[in-house]
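Action item from last week, closing it out:
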Amino acid sequence: MFAGHCARRVPWWCGVTARFDAAAIRQYPEFAELVRLRDAGMRFVPIVDADGRITELTGFHGWPSGPVDAIRIRSPRDAVAMRIARDERILWETSGTLRDVVAMLLELPAPEHRVAPRLSLGSGPELWIP
């Protein structure tokens, strides 16, 4: 899918990250799915409630050609992913468990690929990308 930052060159902090990832995955196995997305180039933003508790995690990856792949995770059993065109048309969408949604998102062809989804499924939400 998209190239991860550690795949191009191996900076010193990738070893630190790998040790942290392994410890976190031992404690929370579903964290492995987030690592897969992060290593594929996705960035994450936590959504917090009024008390500062994380209520969901939103991830995004912007493609050079314009589309954005996004994921919203509320729990290991509640995740939604979509590809949204520059003009906010939804080109692809799926929902389900975190593991299933991540697998489908990582299998999604790049927007330029001949079999990538191009037909609009509807209008997407207004995205805030930091």
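Closing note: The radius of gyration is 15 Å.
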